[in-house]
Design brief:
The complex is a heterodimer of chains A (about 120) and B (about 150). Chain A is an all-alpha fold and about 120 residues long. Chain A has one domain. Chain A is built from 4 helices and no strands. Chain A is elongated, with a radius of gyration of 15 Å. Chain A starts with a helix and ends with a helix. Chain B has about 150 residues and is an all-alpha fold. Chain B has one domain. Chain B is elongated, with a radius of gyration of 18 Å. Chains A and B meet through helix 3 and helix 4 of A and helix 1 of B.
Chain lengths: ~120, ~150
C-alpha cells in the first residue's frame, strides 16, 4: 500500500460517511451528493486493488499476511456497492444513514489494511 | 435531531406505513451494522482457519461460530413475523452472552485464547461493536414488541 493514498482514502471515506449520517439524520433522502461519496470511495478501492496487485512486483511487498489483506480489501470493496444499491431500492432518510455507516466501515477497514500491509515482524 | 415530519412516502410496505417509521429506520441501520459485522467476522475467521487453525482451535472455532451467528441475526432482523422475531431474540441474546463470557475469559485465561476472536476483550478489535450492537438490538426488539402489543 502507499501511505499517502491510504490517508486520502481514509479521509474521504470518513468525510463521506459523516456527511451522509448527518444529512440522513436531518431527514434527507439519498441524493446525488450523498451517493457521490460512496461512489468515490468505491473508485478509490478499485484503484487500491490495482495498486495492491502491482505493488509487490514494484518492490513494495506487504510484510503482513497477504491472505488477510485481500480478505479485508475485497470485503471493503463490496460494502459501498451494497450501500448504494440499498439506497436506490429504499429511498428513505435511513438509507442515507446506512450509506454513511458503510463509508465509515470502509474507512476502518482501509486503516486496518494499512496495518496488515506494514506489520512488523510477521 | 429527528424531525417529526411524517416519514415521507419512503416507508414502503402496506402495514409499515403508519406507526413506526423511526423504529423501522433504526431497524434498517441495525441490519446494516449487523451485515457489516457478519462480513467482517466471516472474512476474518475464514482467513484464520485457512492459515493456521492449529494455533488456536478454540479461539478460531469461536470466531467462525460468531460469524455464522451474525449472519443468522442479520437475516432474522429483516422479515416480520413471530418466527423471525424469536430467531432474532435467540441469536442476539446468544451474541451478548458470548461477548461477555469470551470477553471475560480472554482476560482471565489467556492460555485458552492465545489468539484473538471476534469476541476477545469484549470485541475490542472491532471497536466494541460486538458488545453494544446486541444491546441496541435487544432494546430495539423490546420497543418493537411493546408497540406491537399496543397496536394489537
Amino acid at each position: 500500500m502507499i501511505l499517502g493514498f491510504t490517508i486520502a482514502q481514509v479521509a474521504i471515506a470518513t468525510l463521506a460517511g459523516s456527511l451522509a449520517i448527518v444529512l440522513g439524520l436531518l431527514g434527507r433522502k439519498p441524493s446525488d451528493l450523498t451517493l457521490a461519496g460512496p461512489v468515490l470511495v468505491e473508485l478509490l478501492l478499485i484503484a487500491q486493488i490495482v495498486v495492491a496487485i502491482i505493488a509487490p512486483g514494484a518492490g513494495n511487498a506487504p510484510s503482513g499476511n497477504p491472505l488477510e489483506f485481500w480478505a479485508y480489501l475485497l470485503s471493503a470493496a463490496v460494502i459501498p456497492i451494497a450501500g448504494v444499491a440499498w439506497a436506490l431500492v429504499e429511498r428513505s432518510k435511513w438509507s442515507t444513514v446506512v450509506v454513511g455507516v458503510a463509508c465509515l466501515a470502509v474507512a476502518i477497514m482501509v486503516y486496518r489494511m494499512e496495518i496488515i500491509w506494514t506489520v512488523q515482524g510477521a | 435531531m429527528v424531525s417529526n415530519a411524517p416519514a415521507p412516502s419512503g416507508a414502503t410496505g402496506p402495514e409499515s406505513a403508519r406507526p413506526s417509521s423511526r423504529a423501522r429506520g433504526v431497524g434498517i441501520v441495525l441490519v446494516a451494522v449487523y451485515g457489516i459485522l457478519a462480513l467482517a467476522a466471516t472474512g476474518r475467521s475464514t482467513v484464520q482457519i485457512i492459515r493456521n487453525f492449529d494455533e488456536a482451535p478454540v479461539a478460531y472455532s469461536l470466531s467462525a461460530l460468531a460469524a455464522v451467528v451474525y449472519i443468522v441475526a442479520t437475516v432474522a432482523l429483516i422479515p416480520r413475523g413471530p418466527f423471525w422475531r424469536r430467531l432474532a431474540w435467540v441469536t442476539i441474546v446468544f451474541e451478548l452472552a458470548f461477548v461477555l463470557i469470551v470477553g471475560t475469559l480472554s482476560i482471565i485465561d489467556a492460555q485458552l485464547f492465545p489468539r484473538d476472536t471476534v469476541w476477545s476483550y469484549y470485541g475490542m478489535g472491532y471497536l466494541f461493536f460486538p458488545l453494544f450492537t446486541p444491546i441496541l438490538g435487544l432494546i430495539w426488539l423490546r420497543a418493537n414488541r411493546r408497540r406491537d402489543e399496543v397496536a394489537a
